[in-house]
Amino acid sequence: MPKQSISDIDVAGKLVLVRADLNVPLDGATISDDTRIRASLPTIQHLASSGAKGIFICSHLGRPKNGPEAKFSLAPCAARLSELLEKPVKLVTDCVGDEVKSAVDSISADQTIFLLANTRFYAEESKNDPEFAAKLAAPFDLFVNDAFGTAHRAHASTEGVTHHLSPSVSGFLLAKELEYLDGAVNNGERPMAAIVGGSKVSSKITVLEALLDKCDKVIIGGGMVFTFLKAKGLSVGSSMAEDDFVETAKAVMAKAEANGKQLILPTDIVVADAFSADANTQVVKADAIPDGWMGLDNGPEATKEISAALADCKTVIWNGPMGVFEFDAFAKGTFAIVDVLEEITAKGACTIIGGGDSVAAVEKSGKADKMSHISTGGGASLELLEGKVLPGVAALADKEEGAPPPPASASSPERLRAEVEAAREE
After folding, report:
1. Which portions of the chain have biased composition (kind: Basic and acidic residues) (predicted)?
2. Helix ranges, 120-245 (H)
3. Residue 38, annotated ligand binder?
4. Among this protein's residues, is 356 annotated catalytic?
5. Among the options 19, 36, 230, 261, which is catalytic?
6. Percent of the chain having pLDDT more than 90?
7. Is residue 237 annotated as involved in ligand binding?
8. CB 3.0-4.6 Å disulfide test: which of 15, 134, 277, 315 passes with 188?
9. 21 a known binding residue?
């Protein structure tokens, strides 16, 4: 964990580089969900009120292939930040070099907030190139990482710059994510439950196994249900099932039984004759899925059983929907989980929505503010729930204030990777 956060350092008169996660969904140039931008505000506002001379925010957006692309410009994010902060946010046309130097030189007595150009316009960003990291860090006095969504990546703007800026600390969002996700898994109040949904066992098996070690109850939902049903010898019709992971599902069920853990699968299923919003549907028992029909949601009895299982829980972690909630006909199981979590949160339980489609479902329900914590990370949330140390976090934990950074020439991508791996093992 980071040794220091933004609350522990003096930023007055300093030039601060902030790594935010502004990788928001866009419809053309229009932001369709500004959750990640809003989540970055407390750190930026703290820096502003604490007298930072200049606040320079960097982020990636999308996956540009060959340098700058207009569709991946952070201009919409600069505009939205200006609206939310109620002060100008100046967009810089580059993230390193002369344009950034000119922006620094332009700062007058009045504090200025800048948004640097998309860091992924440079291939060196994702490669964690030491020379690029040194250039990115060069104009600044200290570094604040507030981008939990990319903390599982050892990139130049998340890990590389920490070798050149001291102190390097966490922002409020990153600290909050670690407090809830890591804290809940390792020190959560019991009984503790995990709800693991989504389409594939293969993409969730490591987090599923990790949560089975920590939790008293694990509820399985979504498409991965059918691999488990197949592992029990049941017919799943035309439902999604991963034959290569049937033995894995058997092993998970055996582990749960051996350790006295509850592994809860739905007892009834909403099935359809096609993957379509207007398909014919029926509710069947989990052991009676007809040939040619596919399961797309939990049935009402399954929802009742899940509700009963969660009623006494003090900590609940949810990652992955119960069904194809994008279609109204198959959304009841997922939104029923939202309702249950709202109810137990009001009674004092800690409810954590661990990234991905479960966050989208909670946002769509309009009840995001009823949960204890909504994670801004997808892959980062999963890796933290698996018990992994995130490179962007390990890099902060490794840095003492005042320690001299190594020269760029002394660094290499191999050395940086080795340092991150060493931090993972500590």
Report:
1. 414-426
2. 123-126, 130-137, 172-177, 183-187, 201-214, 225-231
3. no
4. yes
5. 36
6. 76
7. no
8. 315
9. yes
Known active-site residue 200: yes
Q: Tens of pLDDT along 49-108?
A: 999 999 999 999 999 988 999 999 999 999 999 999 999 999 999 999 999 999 999 998
**Of the listed 356, 377, 392, 399, which one is catalytic?**
356
- Identify whether the C-beta of residue 196 lies closer than 8 Å to the C-beta of residue 224: yes
DSSP-based three-state secondary structure for 210:
helix
How far is residue 33's CA from residue 368's CA, in Å, rounded to a whole number?
13
Structural tokens at position 185: 């898994």
**Tokens 């990370």 correspond to what residue?**
377
Task: State the residue for tokens 């939310």.
Answer: 84
Active-site residue flag, 377: no
417 assigned to active site: no
DSSP 290: P
Three-state DSSP class for 170?
strand
Main-chain dihedrals φ then ψ at residue 282, nearest 5 degrees: -160, 160
Residue 144 in 3-state DSSP?
strand
Q: Which two tokens stand for residue 134?
A: 């040194």
Kindly report the average pLDDT of the chain as a whole number.
Answer: 90
User: Has residue 423 got a pLDDT over 60?
Assistant: no
Q: What was the pLDDT predicted at 3? A: 64
Distance, in Å, from the CA atom of 362 to the CA atom of 245, rounded to the nearest integer, reads 29
Count other C-beta atoms under 10 Å from residue 117's C-beta. 23
**b/e per residue 321-341 (b: at least 16 CB within 10 A):** bbbbbebebbbbbbbbbbebb
Instruction: Say how many residues make up the chain.
Output: 426
Identify any residues that bridge with 192 across adjacent strands, giving them in sequence order. 315
Question: Residues 168-198: pLDDT tens digits?
Answer: 999 999 999 998 888 877 888 999 999 999 8
| 323-382 pLDDT, tens digit each | 999 999 999 999 999 999 999 999 999 999 987 788 889 989 999 999 999 988 888 888
Supply φ then ψ for residue 296, to 5 degrees.
-130, 0
